[in-house]
Structures are given as C-alpha cells and as structure tokens.
Amino acid sequence: MKKEEKEKTTTGFRYRLREFKAGMGPAIKELKFTLRRIRQSPLSIVGIIIIVIFAGIAIVAPIIAPPVMRDPYRIFRDGFGAEPRPPGSPVLEPIAREKGWTVHYFGTAQGQYDIFYGCIWGTRTAFRIGVLVVAISLIIGILLGSVSGYYGGIIDEILMRFTDIVLAFPGLILAMALVIALPLMWEVDVGLILIIAAAFLIPVVILRVRHMGGLGLLIGLVAALAITAYKFTVGLPPIWVWSLQLSRLDKVLIALALVGWPSYTRVIRSEVLRVRQEDYVEAAKAIGCSDFRIITKHILPNAIYSVIIMATLDIGAIVLTAAALSFLGIGAPEGYADWGQMISYARNWIFAGIENPWQYWYTFTIPGIFIFTFVLGWNLLGDAFRDILDPTLRRR
Amino acid sequence: MEQDILLDIKRLKKYYPVLGGVLRRKIADVKAVDDVSFRIFKGECFGLVGESGCGKTTLGKTIIRLLEPTAGSIYFNVPPEILEEIDKLENSKLRDERKLRELRRKYDLATYKGPKLNLVRRKMQIVYQDPTTSLNPRMLVKDIVAEPLIVQGIAKGIEARKRVIEMLYKVGLTEMHLYRYPHEFSGGQRQRIAVARALITHPEFVVLDEPTSSVDVSVRAQLLNLFEDLRKDLNLTYLFISHDLSVVECIADRVAVMYLGKIVELSDTEDLYNNPLHPYAKALFASIPVPDPTVKRKRIMLTGEVPSPVNPPKGCRFHPRCPQAMEICAQEEPILKDVGNNHFVACHLFE
Amino acid sequence: MKKNSILTVDNLKVNFYTYEGIVEALDGVNLNLMPGETLGVVGETGCGKSVTGLSIMKLVPPPGRIEEGKVIFNIKNRTLNVLELEERILRKIRGRLISMVFQDPRSALNPVYTVGDQIMEVLLHHRRKTLIKRIIDQLDKKIKEGKAGFLEKFYKKMLTIMMEDPKSDIIELTSKIPFLRGYKRLLKEEAKKEAINMLRLMRIPDPERVVDMYPHELSGGMAQRVVIAMALACNPEILIADEPTTNLDVTVQLQILYLIKRLREEFSSSIIYITHDMGVIAEMCDRVAVMYAGSIVELADVIELFKNPLHPYTRGLLESIPRPGQPFKSIPGTVPSLINPPKGCRFHERCPYAMEICNREKPKFVEVKKNHFVQCFLYQSKSSKD
After folding, report:
1. Pairing assessment for the beta strands C372-374 and B45-49 based on DSSP bridges
2. CB contact under 8 A, B250 and C317
3. CB of A150 within 8 A of CB of A295?
4. Contact in structure between A86 and A362 (CB atoms under 8 Å)
5. Cβ of A283 and B197 within 8 Å?
6. Which long-range contacts (CB under 8 A, 24 or more apart) does C194-197 make?
7. Cα dihedral A377, A378, A381, A382 in deg (nearest 10)
8. Tens-of-pLDDT digits for all 396 residues of chain A?
C-alpha cells in the first residue's frame, strides 16, 4: 500500500526523479547518435584527445610541477643568468631542490625561468583565458544578438550600429589599447551600476507581465542610457564605491572579451532571424507564449549551433591573441606562467649566431608546440562540432 | 434552422506595406486580404479555397490574431443580440460613435491586446501545413503538447501529463510516444502531434491550414477521418484552408472561393461545386483533373497568371482574365451578394 | 518486353548506402516505353519513382548506386545500355536524346543566370552545329547578294572551321584577339533567337522581354515553362517529367498539362510522366505503371487500369481518392522501411488479401491479361512458373 502510494506521488522528489530518468531516454539516444558520428570522424577524435590531454595536464599541474614560489603561477627562477640552459641541466637553487626539482626537463629560458614549469602551468592559464573570454563574449553576444534579432526595428538598428562601431576597430590593436588604458585599480561605483540595472530591469519585468516585453525593453534601455549619460555629463555623487584591483592578466581578459563580443552578436542575430521565421515559433505565439519564453525555449536552442562551433574555434584564436599580447609585453606580467610570456623570453635567442644558430631551440620550440597543439585541438574540436551539430548534415 | 454564429468577420483587411526609396518609405501596399466579410457557424467545417497568393492563409492567420489586422472587426463568440446592435449602429445614419467604440473594445477581437488576447488564444488554434517545420525539433513530444497548458496556466505537472496522454490517445498516438523527438516520426504522425497540441486547450475554433498537403494520399484519408471524428467529439468549428478542391469538397459544409484578397463566391459545398456562378470559380472547379480517363470534362482555360496583390486591377480584380468581362467590370468592384439560397457571388453578371 | 519500344528498363536495382543502413530503393524495376506514348508512373512518396527517373539518365546521386539492371535505349536502329556508357557519351545523350523536367522549377533554374542564358546553354552545348550551319547559311545569302564585307566572309570561314573542329588552333588563336572573335557573338545571338523561339512555343507572353529575366522574377508557372523549354530545346526522343505540376496552382497546372499535350504532338516525344496524382494520370497518360516500395506492381493501359485494377495496392489507391458523401478510405498501415525491407511481397503487411506465400516469396511480374501486367500472387499459380 505504502509503496503504491509512493509511486503515485505527484510532486516531490520521487516524481522528479522518475521524470528525470524517463527524460534521459531520448537524450541518451541522441548522445549515442552523436558519439557514433564522432567516431566516424577521426580528426575529431584527435581533437578531443588533445583537449583531454591538456585538461589532464592542467589538473595535475601541482603534482607534476610542484610550485616553488608562493604564487604557483610564478615560474621559479634558477639563478639570474641571461643565457638559457639546455634541457637536462640540473637545478641549482636550493629552495627548488627542496620541493623536488632535480632537473630542468625542458631547459631554462632567459632569466633562468624553468620552461617545463612555465609550459605546464601555462596550460592552466591558457584554459582560463580561452574559456573565460569566450564565455563572456558568448553571454554578451547571446543577450544582445537575440534581443536584436527577435525584436528588430529600432532596437536592432541601435544595437547593430553599436556593434559595427566596435567591430570597426582592428581587434588586436583595440585589445592592446584597452590593456594599456584599463587602470590597475579601478574605482567602481557599484551603487550606480545597481541603479542603472534596476532602471533597466524594472520596466522590462513590469511590462513583461502585461505581455508588452518589447516596449519594456525599450523603456529600460532608454532609462539606463539616460542615467549613464547624466552621470557622465552632469555628474552624480558617488553612491557605493568599491575598489577593484585588476591584475595584468585580468586586464587582458577584459580587453579580449570587449573586443570579441561583436562577432558573436552578429552570428547569433542572423541565426535568430532565420529561426524566427520558422513555423514552430509562430505556433508558439499562437499558443500564447511570452516573448521571453519564445526566445529562450524555442529560438535559442535552435539558433545556438553555429555559435557553439564558433566559440570552440575561437578559444584557440583567443589563446593565440593572448600569446601575442604577452609576446609584445603587454599581456601577462613578468615571470607569469603563460606560453606567450615564455616565447617573449626567447625573443633574443631565436637565432644565436652563425656557428650553432639553433642552439637555444628549446626556448621557443617547446612553448610553441604547446600553443600550436592546443589551438589545433580546439580547431579540430570545432570542426567536429560543426559536422556533428549541423542539423542539415546530422541526419544522413 | 438558425445556427449559432461563432465568428462574424466584418470588412477585414490585412495590408503589408511595401517600402522603397532611399528613406524606405511606404510606397505601396500588398493587399493580401482586402475587405473580407463573412460568418462562420458553430460546429461547421468552413472551407476556404483559392490559389497561391489569394490570401487564404493570411486570412486564416489574421482571424486568430497571429497577424495584426490592418482594419476591420472580428467578433468571436459574441451573443447575437450584441451583433445585431453593432450592425444597427454601423448602418444607421446617425452613428453613436462612442457606443460603437465601447462595444468594439469589449467584443471586437481585432482590438484586443495583452492578457485579454491571451485568454482568447485558448479558444482559437491553428494546425500548420508542414508538420516538420511546425514542431520545435529540439523539444520532446510531451513538452510540445503540454506547452499550451503551461503557458496558459491551465495545468501543470501531473495534471498536464494526464491531459497530454488523453489527447495523444484521441489523435491516435500512445504514451510510448511521449519521450521522443519529432524527427523520429513519420509525416502523418507529426501532423497528429500538431493536432494534439492545437486541441489540448479545448479550443472552439481551429484553423486548419492545408493540413493534408504535405502528406501522402493514404495518410491523408486517415488524417481527414481524424478531423471529422474530433470535430464531432469535441464540438469544434473548422476553417479548412486548402488548394486541393477535391478534399475540400468532401469535408466542408460551406466553401468560400478567394481571389486576390477577396471572396468571390460563397455557398454550401454541394451547391457551389455543382453550380459555380463566378467565372473564376467555374474555371477553378473545371480545372481539377478527374481521376477517370473516360470522362472528358469541359475545360475552361484561363489566360495569363494571377496578378500580384500589390497592384490589383481596377474594378473587379478578375476582369483582365475573365472570359465574360463586361465594361462595368473594369470600373466598379462587384459586392458579395446573396443571389438566393444563401449562395453569395461577387460578380456584375448577377446584379 | 516488346521489341519496338524506345526505352526498356530491365530489372533495375538501386541501393542507397546511408548512415542508417542500406536503403533498397529499387528492387527490380521493369518498364518499357513505346515511341510516341505517354507512360505514367504513379506512386506515393518514397516508392522510388523519382529514383527510377534519375536512373534512366544515370543521374542517381551518391550515396546511391545502381547495383544491377539495364536501361536500353533503342534509337536510330542502335541499342545502347545507358548504364554501361561512359560519362563523355552520356553527356551527349542527356539533354539531347533524353531530357528531364523536375518538380520544383525554382531549384531547377540557376538563380544567378537569366532565363535566356540557361536555355542558350543547352542549345550551345547540344545544337551548336545546327546553329552554326544556320548562321553560315545566312552569311552565304548575304555574300551572294553582295552585301557582305570582309568581316562577314572572315566570320564564315571561322565558323566553318569551328563546326568541324571546335578545338582547332585557329579558333584558339582568334578567340584571344578582340576584333577577330566577333563570330562567337554571332553564335550567341543566334542561340538567343532560338531561345526566344522556344519561349514563344511555350506560350510565354512577351518572350523578348522574358528571355532577359531572372528566375526569381517569374511566377511558378512561367518558371516551369522555362524548364520545359530547356528540356525540349533539343527535341529529345524521351522526356522524363518528374512531378512537374505538383507545386503549381490548379489552374496553372491545367495550362501546363495542356502545353505538354500539345508539345507532345509538335515534338513527337515519348514521355514518362511521374506523379502521385491519379487525376493527372487519367488526363495525360496512355499507359500507367503503379509503383510501390521500389517495384512496379501493376502496368496497364490507362482505361483498363481505372476500370479493372488488379493489384490490391492499386485498388487501395483508387479507393482513397476522396469522394463527396462517402467516408474517407485509406490503406491501413504505412510504407515499410526500405532498410531491411520485408521479405517476400513488400505490400503484404498492408494487404487485405495477403496469403501465406506472400510472406515468403516475391511474386513475379506477369502478364495476366492482354497488356496488363501485375506482380501479385493472387494472379499467379502457386507453383510460380513463368
């Protein structure tokens, strides 16, 4: 009796568990189908393996390259000599020896930074930069792109012109400018930001209840812009100020995210425009779905494929750009475990004289291989996703 | 026998602006639906036929407010006394504008907005032509069919699930089909899912927009039988839009023929098919290929093609192609009139 | 099959190698087409009628592959098996001897070329010699009348060479020099005139204007006429029409059907008309082949088929045509999946007359009455001796 009653629970945990298990059925079927398609494309398997290996390296970094300095992201230096030492050279510094270091597996770079350490911990940095930047750009892109594509009209015009303006700046140069311009210490008026957010959200929520979401969005946007403009022209007293400290790396992250979001916005917008015309979106309107529900449940799940592929490919590109910035000296700070940083230490040693020009090959080749393979892995993965997720290619 | 009027459409218009020029200003209108008036009775299957570009799909979607009407009124489920009063007010010389506006705001579906409109959505639904594109490919069947209940706040959780299963059985599917994606089904089954979705809120009025055009002949009959059974079972009223005249002949009680945004003829099905009066209707019915090689039916071949609805011909829209056109046809537009026995025609030949 | 047929399809088997398995699309199709007749091929979606049409021209796209069978083309006292010819010769046949009209005129026409360009492409590819000859005759006339200048005589010389050997060095040379390659322009002008002529033949109003229009500027009916014009531009022996009017309005369909009927007489082509609409079959065809799940189940004269359908599927198909006042009848069940198709007769799962043997063996295609073929055990002795 008791068990039957429990079986018939209409709400609560048991019911939800049953639903979950049943709902997994078709999802698992889809997953199996996806896996089979992955297996059919050997390059995508290579891509997955590469990324998995890198992820593994990143996870076990503290074990295979035990940190020496207090901040594990600082590469330990074995002395202060300028000339790099080849792989296999012994570790001389006593503190490092205490932590278990005996040999420089990959040699040392200029300034006696251990290349092995730098590359291993650099994997963590690479993941951090790549994934975070792409995630932020993706979120901004989805927000702006879906609103722009769904509502069209003047909202679309305004957002797209703004996007165009940002896109007009050459990416790398804009990133460089932002990195230099962003202050290390930032006084952020959090109170003001909260007020602007409230000015934006309140009209949206109120008018959403009355099924006029679009109008609410417009009013919210105007209110938010008005307050911002007021603050910058007439000036407002500080409300609740926090001081944020931005490390050099955080600046790089922010700069790259600010440069990257326009492309995502455009791609999502065009996909939303395409999906918006499908019958099932109109059918959802006929049922009475709110704009919000249509966008989140109907349009986005179908529009997101191109962007996911783009995001995957972009992770590699972002890592490359970050490496470029580090190479130019405005990326990661001195001695930070970052592949680009490692290559910048090789700048003077790439071609070392006539007699044995490649004798310092390890200073740039090894970090270079890490970068190359990492980006390759993500590119292959992105291609694999494209083959797998493209709905037109999916069935047969 | 006086039947109840479910829908009274008055002078409905749907125009699409054509933007042109450097400043993208409106230079013309695509007159997709141009001043259409008719009534649909409760419980009937009203057929709407015409060729591509005549505006039948637009008319269907505008009636249920999927598209915004440019002008005109839609009275849905309004008591006959009020309809009479509105009629009187509109036709009288001294129109009491304020009263009229008040009544319109209360009863005219074309003026509804927001939550009021949302409530009406439960009562009017649509089944699309192509079930492959009208179902969200990323949603499971159980979510697709349950969505109207959740969105309208009628039911959720286990109650919704019960209703979904009930409806699935009604359309000929089972609960085995709950946890599947649309692409795992055949065309006929997908259309059934679309029907389940449309009927789950127990609407009174369903627009069927070419529901059998994308499926095979053998499946077509199954779907048509389903529509008939559901109509009797759930007391539905249909607007059956199709370009397949032979199907409409079998399922509809009354049929209207549309041409370039206007209704040119409207009558009981048998009357219309056996005795079409309007020259376009005559040509239309005469052009259906008969599946009998021994029958040589008289063919009326029309010249030219359907003109674009942006610049419809002046006067009667059909006059450039009409084999019986007269002088007046190029100047004056004929009005849809009852020529006896509830058979309406819009043609100068019958005035 | 008959000896004087213009086209014979013999035991055609086509498989599609897809991700989900091998789709046995055609399972031994047998057809024949007599000169001057219109053969209808009717069946539902997925029965393989389009694949049959494509196979006749050896145009089956991958992952499809023609496994077995012959397509014998009997023309000008020569017999060719289309499936065994090499691409070079096939290219000469397609469009010239056998033409195809597709279902969707919008996708059959290239949107970035004008209608005229596309018809001219067909003409220039296949009827170059005829066009050149015509120009030469015109030039000759001019020369005789003494109205020809040096340029015209030169052009005539070039064109004569071109007719014989389009790849000769002289042609290559002169086509590089601007002043001397005017003869090519003449060729194009002549082709354009011919294209306008074709459009006029299709009863397209104002052909001089239409020839410079792009496909998207035309209505569905006009576009389909253009496609038919392209198909008939070279006066082919056989025209394969794959549901040419399915996407068109019913009044436009009538116009196109009449057009095809008239062209049938003017061009004396034999037509294979593929459709799913029994009404169109009754209107257009002399003989009818009914297809189900990859094979022809019945083949007969059109009047005989409608009066006396033998195969249960044909009967079901005719009964499911909606008739007012009667309930809708349909064939229960659905078309079987062609991946791992049912053994024996592919219709037996839905057949109201299915017998024990239908499950095990596939019936042979036999002539039950004069010119009336059926593939069904109901009409064969159980010993299935041919």
Report:
1. unpaired
2. no
3. yes
4. yes
5. yes
6. C194/C119, C194/C120, C194/C123, C194/C127, C194/C131, C194/C233, C195/C116, C195/C119, C195/C120, C195/C123, C195/C229, C195/C233, C196/C116
7. -150
8. 444 444 454 556 666 677 677 667 777 777 777 777 777 778 888 888 999 999 999 999 888 888 888 888 888 888 888 888 888 888 888 887 887 788 888 888 888 888 888 899 999 989 989 999 999 999 999 999 998 999 888 889 989 999 999 889 888 888 888 888 887 777 777 777 788 788 777 777 776 665 566 677 777 778 878 877 877 777 677 777 777 777 778 888 888 888 889 999 999 999 999 999 888 999 998 888 888 888 888 998 888 888 888 898 889 889 988 888 888 888 888 888 888 888 888 888 887 777 777 788 888 888 999 999 999 999 988 887 777 776 555 553
Q: What DSSP element (H or E) covers A322?
A: helix A300-328
Exposure string over A77-113, b if 16+ CB within 10 A, otherwise e? bbeeeeebbeeebebebeebeeeebeebbbbbbbbbb
Question: SS3 of C270, please?
Answer: strand
Burial of residue B300 (number of CB atoms within 10 Å: 0-12, 13-18, 19+): middle
Task: Give the whole-angstrom CA distance, residue B42 versus residue B6.
Answer: 5
- Asked if B125's CB is within 8 angstroms of A302's CB, the reply is no
- Give the DSSP H or E segment for A188: strand A185-189
For chain B, list residues whose CB is within 8 angstroms of any CB belonging to chain C: 51-52, 186, 188, 216-222, 224-225, 228, 243, 245-247, 249-251, 269-270, 273, 283-284, 287-295, 299, 301-302, 304-306
Dihedral, CA atoms, B134, B136, B141, B145, nearest 10 degrees? Answer: -60
* Gyration radius of chain B over CA positions: 21
| Side chain identity at residue A393, one-letter code | L
Residues 6+ positions from B81 with CB-CB distance below 8 Å: none
Interface of B with A (CB under 8 A): 64, 66, 113-115, 117-118, 121-122, 125-126, 128, 130, 133-140, 147-148, 151-152, 157-158, 179-181, 183, 194, 197, 201
CB C123 within 8 A of CB C92: no
| Alpha-carbon gap: C339 to the closest alpha carbon of chain A (Å) | 13
Predicted TM-score (pTM) of the model is: 0.80
Element (H, E) at C182: helix C182-201
Q: What count of other Cβ atoms lies within 10 Å of the Cβ of residue A66?
A: 15
- Enumerate residues 6+ apart whose C-beta is below 8 A from C137: none
Spatial distance between the Cα atoms of B264 and B79, rounded to a whole number of angstroms: 28
What one-letter code names the amino acid at B266? L
Distance from CA of A83 to the nearest CA of B (A): 59
Peptide bond before residue C63 is cis, with ω within 30 degrees of 0 = yes
List chain B residues with CB under 8 Å of C44: 216-218
DSSP-derived 3-state class of residue A356: coil
What is the C-alpha radius of gyration for chain A, rounded to an integer number of angstroms? 26
Q: CA nearest B288: which of B256, B242, B224, B327?
A: B242
Cα(B245)–Cα(B269) distance, integer angstroms = 11
Give dist(CA C173, CA C154) in Å, integer. 14
For B315: left if phi > 0, alpha if psi spans -120 to 50, otherwise beta; the answer is left
Determine whether the interchain pair A287/B137 forms a contact, defined as Cβ–Cβ distance below 8 Å. no
Q: Take residue C302 and report the two structure tokens written for it.
A: 């059109």
Quickly list H helices, B153-216: 157-170, 187-199
Left (φ > 0), alpha (ψ -120 to 50) or beta: where does A353 sit?
left
